[in-house]
Amino acid sequence: MRCSLRLLGIAALLLPTLGVAGVETATPVLQRLDLTHHWVGYFSLAVMVAAYAAATFEEATELRKSKPMLLAATLIWFAIVFTYQQRGLDQLAVTAFKSNLQTYIELLLFIMVSMTYLNAMKDMQIFDALKVWLVSRHFSYRQLFWITGWLVFSISSIINGLTAGLLMGAVVVAVGKDSPRFVSLACINIVVATNAGGSFSPLGGISTLFVWQHGVLAFTEFFKLFIPCLVNFLIPAAAMHFAVPKDKPTIEAGEVHLPRGAKRIIFLFGVTIGLAVTFDMTLHLPAAAGMMAGLSLLQFFYYYLQKSTDSRIQKPSEFDLSLNSDEINSSILEAKRLEAIRLDIFEKVGRLEWDTLLFFYGAMMGIGGLGYIGYLDAISKIVYGQLSPTLANISIGLSSAFVDNGTLMFAVLTMHPDITQGQWLLLTLTLGIGGSLLAIGSAPGIGLLGQAKGQYTFSSHLKWFPVILLSYFASIGVHFLVNAQSF
Question: Which ranges carry the Citrate transporter-like domain (predicted)?
Answer without folding.
Answer: 59-432
